[in-house]
Write a structure and sequence with these properties.
single chain; alpha/beta; eight-stranded mixed beta sheet; 29 helices; 45% helix; elongated; binds phosphoenolpyruvate; binds magnesium ion
Length: 758
């Protein structure tokens, strides 16, 4: 097609295809017409369509090759040029076909006459379902314009053949690059097992019409969609609208860059000019980008590619009016949610009964969504690269986050093994539930206090289910994190009162807000909460609360009023020096006096405690302890600061062991000091929720643990089979000698002593 642009070449073909597709003929007749139209338009002697059937590429229609070969010639994936194109999902353009190493001669076709060859994959959901090929007697390469036109036509064909049920069912149903079973690895964010069908948090758009009736109307639709998308992104960046998106700032910046990218919108417009609908044009451009990107193996670019995919999907959703998340549409069956990332509020919108797990491409251990999912008891596997490419909506997924694994479209043996493990887990949970009313007492008679960590209103139910002694850590910032606006004092008070009412006689330790750093609240002054280089070590928790005392005062009032007539337990996070505790306590006392002056009912007592999560505070315990009612060790932050290892860094997640002698010696020094001072000390970090680690803590003399509700059963089983005094003596010896293999020693010891480690 010399002198033609890609747009006009494709347009000419599409106009004619439009009529063919609208006609009431059968699919085979349509394909026969299609090869003629394309062959003519490209002045090619040969035009052929191969489609995937029973795993083989079968010649379905041809102009130019021998008609006897139709439905006879078949090629395996990877066999010959056609097989190569389908397998690699890649275009080939050769002036001399026989020179390609994969060339395979099929005598029945009579193709020996033709020298030049160009073929493009017919792609459906990233997988080749067929090949469209043209051949020429003259040895010449097809030019860029012709290849472009072929690719556009192939896209329209993909819809035609899927609709006509010409290809393998599995492929038509939209399975991914590999329709078979896949096992993917990730990072365990919330432990657990879940079985369900894949649901995309942002559902994929199904394109129904690819060829436009009215090009101008399509152009207007895309203009409007671009406008709307840019507005959305502006809104998200200016407010970082909490809860409506899990995106980070840098992702939003990239979105913005693409949203205003002239090249992108121009390419979409060109695709519309070639006769495609707005939806098909967006998809066509995306397909082309994907093909190009596949040739570049730069991880940084791959990340940007994800951003563009997301944006393209967003544009498609806007243009097709298919907005809303899967939560808004409701889950119809047991589901595993698949997303790039999520906000905590978005997760909370899902029906807890049907949500069996979450698989994320991103995510980290301390992300808000992880903390909320843990509280909801939903297993989460994070950092599963390409999950959205591999999985299709509706695929069966088995999630086993304890094994850092997710099975997509599992085989029967995989399912059986999974189910057996699931049943075992249920059986064990039933055994733990039966222990609900048994006290956590060691073999040598030490009564360990077992409490739960909580943060959401519904978490309180865990107290009755597990038979725990109380709430050892109520993360008050959860309410702030899941709210779209700053929760006013009345709202805070209502939550605290509800929690206290539900807990009854059992104590609830409220931790004042630990926000700032990575837990920024977008509705707070952005200037103050500017991005930090090291958010975990930044302006957060008590540091922020003392500087912004209006927030702390409101929370103090809310807590004191909510606890009227009862004992109020308050704990401060991230205290690094004793004066911070003093200042926070003084602030609470001022509020107490203010309420007393107004003759309102006060708590019967306020017990003040602090978290120990900044190592520096350990050096000052002799000074601080006399002023405290209790101390709670936050091992999550403590270990990240002890090892100088970011707790949310996936590469460091497995590197430092909670049972390393450095941590255990550190904790042992702390318990020696607290013992002497007679101040109760507990642990409320994730470490206490693992049976072996919990055993080691008891072995260091820590007799109060606040853990995730699901861990109460296993930890109680451990306690009830443990001789604490014997372990204490053994551990003191090991630590004194400087043993480096504490995990092994503790495991062997537990085994020999018959301690149940679940
Ligand atoms: C901790 O740091 O161990 C802790 C319990 O607090 P958070 O996980 O909320 O930082
Ligand atoms: Mg902490």
């Amino acid at each position: 097609m010399p002198g033609m642009t890609a747009t006009s070449a494709a347009r000419e073909i599409l106009t004619r295809l439009h009529d063919v597709m609208a006609a009431r003929t059968n699919a085979q007749a349509k394909l026969n017409q299609v090869v003629n139209i394309i062959g003519e338009a490209l002045s090619s002697e040969v035009c052929s369509i191969y489609l995937l059937r029973d795993g083989l590429l079968e010649l379905y229609a041809t102009r130019g090759l021998k008609q006897e070969a139709v439905h006879v010639t078949r090629l395996a994936l990877g066999e010959g040029l056609v097989g190569h194109i389908a397998q690699e999902v890649k275009t080939l353009n050769l002036d001399e076909a026989t020179s390609h190493p994969d060339f395979a001669y099929k005598p029945e076709t009579g193709e020996e006459l033709y020298h030049s060859f160009a073929g493009v994959p017919i792609v459906r959901r990233e997988r080749a379902v067929g090949v469209l090929a043209v051949q020429h007697a003259e040895p010449r390469r097809y030019d860029e314009v012709e290849i472009e036109a072929l690719q556009t036509v192939a896209m329209v064909l993909a819809e035609l053949i899927a609709g006509a049920e010409l290809i393998d069912e599995a492929v038509r149903g939209g399975s991914a690059r590999d329709a078979g079973p896949v096992r993917l690895a990730g990072l365990k964010l919330v432990e657990g097992m879940g079985r369900g069908h894949a649901v995309f948090h942002q559902p994929r758009v199904h394109i129904e019409h690819t060829v436009a009736e009215d090009t101008e109307a399509e152009r207007q639709r895309v203009y409007a969609a671009f406008r709307q998308m840019r507005e959305q992104i502006e809104r998200m960046t200016s407010q970082a609208e909490f809860g409506t998106a899990g995106e980070h700032q840098d992702v939003l910046e990239t979105y913005k860059m693409f949203a205003y990218d002239e090249g992108w919108s121009r390419r979409i417009n060109e695709a519309i000019d070639s006769g495609l609908t707005a939806e098909a044009a967006i998809e066509r451009v995306q397909q082309r980008t994907r093909m190009r990107m596949r040739e570049i193996s730069d991880p940084l670019l791959a990340d940007r590619m994800h951003d563009l995919e997301d944006l393209s999907n967003r544009l498609l959703r806007i243009v097709s009016g298919q907005l809303g998340t899967a939560a808004q549409m409701g889950l119809r069956q047991d589901s595993i949610l698949v997303a790039r990332n999520l906000g905590p509020a978005e997760l909370l919108e899902y029906d807890r009964r049907r949500l069996k797990g979450v698989v994320l491409e991103e995510g980290s251990l301390t992300a808000h969504v992880t903390i909320v999912a843990r509280a909801m008891g939903v297993p989460v596997l994070g950092r599963v690269r390409d999950i959205r490419q591999v999985v299709q909506e509706g695929d069966l997924i088995l999630l086993d986050s304890a094994q850092d694994t997710v099975f997509v479209r599992p085989t029967s043996p995989m399912e059986e093994a999974f189910d057996a493990k699931l049943v075992l887990g249920q059986k064990r949970r039933a055994e733990f539930a039966a222990m609900r009313d048994l006290p956590p007492v060691t073999v040598d008679g030490r009564r360990i206090t077992l409490m739960v960590n909580a943060g959401l209103r519904d978490d309180v139910a865990a107290l009755d289910i597990t038979g725990a002694d109380g709430i050892g850590l109520f993360r008050t910032e959860f309410q702030f994190l899941v709210s779209a606006t700053l929760p006013q004092r009345e709202r805070q008070q209502r939550l605290y009162r509800d929690v206290l009412d539900a807990a009854g006689d059992r104590p609830v330790i409220f931790r004042t807000v630990d926000i700032g750093g990575d837990k920024t609240l977008p509705y707070m002054n952005q200037g103050d909460l500017a991005e930090e280089e090291n958010p975990a070590m930044g302006w957060r928790a008590i540091r922020l609360a003392l500087d912004r005392d209006a927030l702390m005062k409101a929370q103090a009032r809310a807590l004191i009023e909510a606890a009227a007539g009862r004992v109020l337990y308050v704990m401060f996070p991230m205290v690094s020096e004793p004066w911070e505790f003093d200042a926070a306590q003084a602030l609470f006392e001022t509020q107490r006096r203010w309420i007393a002056d107004r003759n309102r009912l006060l708590p019967t007592a306020i017990r003040y405690g602090t978290m120990l999560e900044v190592p520096a505070l350990a050096e000052m315990l002799d000074v601080l302890l006399p002023r405290l009612d209790f101390l709670s060790i936050g091992t999550n932050d403590l270990t990240q600061f002890l090892f100088a290892a970011d707790r949310s860094h996936p590469k460091l997640a497995e590197r430092f062991d909670w049972l390393s002698p450095a941590i255990l010696r550190f904790l042992s020094r702390v318990t020696n000091t607290t013992d002497k001072a007679g101040i109760p000390v507990g642990v409320c970090g994730e470490m206490g929720g693992r049976s072996l680690e919990a055993m080691a803590l008891v072995g260091l003399g820590i007799e109060r643990l606040s853990i995730t509700p699901a861990a109460i059963g296993p930890v109680k089983a451990m306690i009830r089979t443990l001789d604490a005094a014997k372990l204490r003596a053994a551990m003191a010896g090991w630590l004194a000698e400087g043993a480096h293999d504490m995990r092994d020693r503790l495991t062997t010891w537990a085994d020999a002593e018959g301690v149940t480690i679940g």
